[in-house]
Amino acid sequence: MDNGIITSCNNYKTIAADSVDELVRNGVYHILAEGESISSRAGDAQQAYGVNYLLRHPLNRLHTTRQGAIRYLAREFVAYFKGSLKAEDGLAKASKFWMSLTDDDGNVNSNYGYYVFYEPVEGYGNQYNWAKHVLMANRDSRRAIININQNYHKSDTKDFPCTVGIQFYIKNNALYCETTSRSTDVITGLPYDMGFFSFIHELLWKDLCQSGMNGLGLGTTVMKTTFTQIYNKTLQKAHEVIESHLLSDSDKRMPLIESAQDTLSDIINGQQQTPVIKWVHAHAE
Question: Pairing mode, if any, of strands 217-231 and 174-185?
Fold first, then answer.
């Protein structure tokens, strides 16, 4: 008898780890073992399907097993904090690669900080404030969503954002963060996207705690991705990740966010008053 339950042949797999380094390494192992060969606009790759990357400890967000990874993450943070879609003003300062994805006006779409801190939301200022507001109004809210991939991105753009959106929710008195991604490159995407999403997760958590949600815990950060791949052009880097030495957790942490409001003020006003923002700018040099 048909019970209305449909079993997918593409069952999702959860890859969980205590740090971003472990998450990337486990992702590489999975793709090499289970991936299929594909050809795409970005090049040939090994690709796996339906993977949830779960970071158990969002504070362990630094990718240390590749030289220069922390500096690149810090430079992306600086670009995200500025929020400019103009590549020369933002992401191209992290990597000149972004200049190859610009439109006729020199813009790219993947500056995630723009959507979090600067895209206007009537009555709330920005999407970050919206997410905080709905959770403060109702701890069981299912509306704490920051949209990234938008309907206006549906064009012949070379930079179609990989992240669809970020959702926050409270369960068992802890704040969880789940992002939905259409596609995640385990070498050049996962460590840096997870780094930023876990930072926003910590920021909102601290903000809610300091706004009256006493005793709220910090849950996991998850990236739910439909496609995840290793491109042939970065295969050697993937093997270097496997062979690298993992540092202890204490070596994988940025300074804690001490004051959410002061940190937000630094971000919006382009200042460096708080320890965490000072750390970001110092490591972006």
Answer: parallel
